[in-house]
Amino acid sequence: MAKKRTISExxxxxxxxxxxxxxxxxxxxxxxxxxxxxxxxxxxxxxMCCKNCGMGPCRLTKNGDVGICGAxxxxxxxxxxxxxxxxxxxxxxDHGRGMAMTLKATANGExxxxxxxDVAKLGTIAALYEIPIEGRSPEEIANxxxxxxxxxxxxxxxxxxxxxxxPTKRQKRWEEAGVIPxxxxxxxxxxLHRTHIGDDQDxxxxxxxxxxxxxxxxxxxxxxxxxISDILFGTPAPILGQANLGVLKDDYVNVVVHGHEPTLSEMxxxxxxxxxxxxxxxxxxxKGVNLSGICCTANEILMRQGIPAAxxxxxxxxxxxxxxxxxxxxxxxxxxxxxxxxxxNFHTRIITTSPKVKITGATHIEFDEHHALTIAKEILKNxxxxxxxxxxxxxxDIREDLIPGFxxxxxxxxxxxxxxxxxxxxxxxxxxxxIRGVAAIVGCNNPRGQxxxxxxxxxxxxxxxxxxxxxxxxxAIAAGKLGLMLGEAGLSEVGSGLRxxxxxxxxxxxxxxxxxxxxxxxxxxxxxxxxxxxxxDDIDQVPAVGLAPEWMSEKALSIGTxxxxxxxxxxxxxxxxxxxxxxxxxxxxxxARYISQGWEELYGGxxxxxxxxxxxxxxxxxxxxxxxxxxxxxxxxxxKFGRSGDARMTELEKLPLAQKREAIYGVAAD
Length: 670
Ligand code: NFS
What we know:
Distance between the termini: 81 Å
Strand order of the largest sheet: 6-5-4-7-8-9
Low-confidence stretches: none
CATH architecture of the domain at 403-573 and 610-630: 3-Layer(aba) Sandwich
Radius of gyration: 25 Å
Strand content: 5-15%
Largest sheet: 6 strands, parallel
Bound molecules: FE(4)-NI(1)-S(5) cluster
Shape: globular
CATH class of the domain at 403-573 and 610-630: Alpha Beta
């Protein structure tokens, strides 16, 4: 029987804790209590169960066990991991396909309410593929780009064209390893084929294809999804936002958008600001419509419109527990089926919108990009009509300001300005040791652990060590809730060198780079750092680490794999889906060893599962230092920097005038 945890063991977030207390008082279960009641299967969670055919499921529990067909543990683990990566890649890439279809419809004047907002980015991206720009309208260019991107899904031969955006040396490595994706869909389908009973049975060979599929996600489906979102809705730039359940308002109609795709949520944002909708809400007795987001939909509209995030993955149920949500509008991915049952205790309507996602008991209002604005208004009116049914509410008075919006375009601009935009200052700061290295902390929450603890603990510890952090997904929302994404507010806990850089450039020590699909922005940043010079000629030489401390989704596994294939050391927390049997000698653990040492030899990056936060931090710093040494950079020294910028000014302020002059001009006063 699993141990029952206390409320503070469930979550570090005080707003979440308040709602968990309310759930307990009302006798309502949540993912947290269900996680306590349901112990994970210790065979399945380490990938030791095969249910790919009707002879099984075969559970391999002892060293040397094989399945009925003779499949070994290594083959079964490789198959299971590959299937998970295929599902993750499919989710991201299908999102990308939807974006490309919306771009096509917009270009042809068939998508109500949409426009090409970032013509400059459209031009930049089109030029990468030699799409003619001169003398053509944005719509004509967008139509060609949409056609090119749509063709990447069903392409049978050749290479996914976006892979050419990786550093040259990286592309050569992929060519040598035979992992350049031919078509985004083709690789996903082949994962399913190869892992069918009686197909590919060499674990290393199976996993080679998993890498190819994941590259088709990171340097294919996800990258094009980010490109098109920016073209249609604008490339993010810093904007003030807020995060946590306290963004819900007691006198407004609260509509929470949850899921992943910005296509519908952007239209809901537009519709919520229309006089027609505001008047409709006022007629219902509310002051207006208050929009907020959960999960990556939250990140999409937070980054671009400053719409507040009500919370991350584990707060979807908690938002409903406030009793103040008139409608939770969901599209695809990371939506708990439990929402519908939970909502029955309140007046909240769960509205599904995707043709791909229905939940029994939910209201379905299907989204169609050709009539998006009309549908968005219908959804909002449905929510407003529900305002009168609201019962007792309890909204935690907890929210934090944050500044999201750090697209790679903006980072480039902020470091050098319009006329000399460049990554030079960032590279220089790493080369001198002001910044020790970079960590990307991304990914989900997992109710098996303490909500937000790993995300925020690891981030805080790395900041003290002068590690600049970029974040996406639910990890980014966790950091935002903690106040680490505000210029001055986060800096008191930051190492002196990093602090100096943040003060000089005027940035928070943790940069919010968007949704999980936007991990493609991190790939672009790494590529630009390499191209800038001084940090080697490929991504695996950059002192950088990727972490998904609280991962749970298959998408996270795809992201981890394409980051490794791109050259990054990637550390996941929690349980390894390819963990071994307790009595197995580590060296005979073929799959776990292969995705670490094997992938490192091939790609310079490796994937490891390290549940202990302290070890996770140590491994991150050791890797960063190893990469610094390999580049011949000076060893990082704590407190070496930090006596210039604001800190120096404050120091000088305290000196008598004569000494101040001497310190500044090097000459004593006369
Ligand atoms: Ni990423 Fe975003 Fe969150 Fe995990 Fe789910 S919302 S796509 S999968 S849970 S970070």
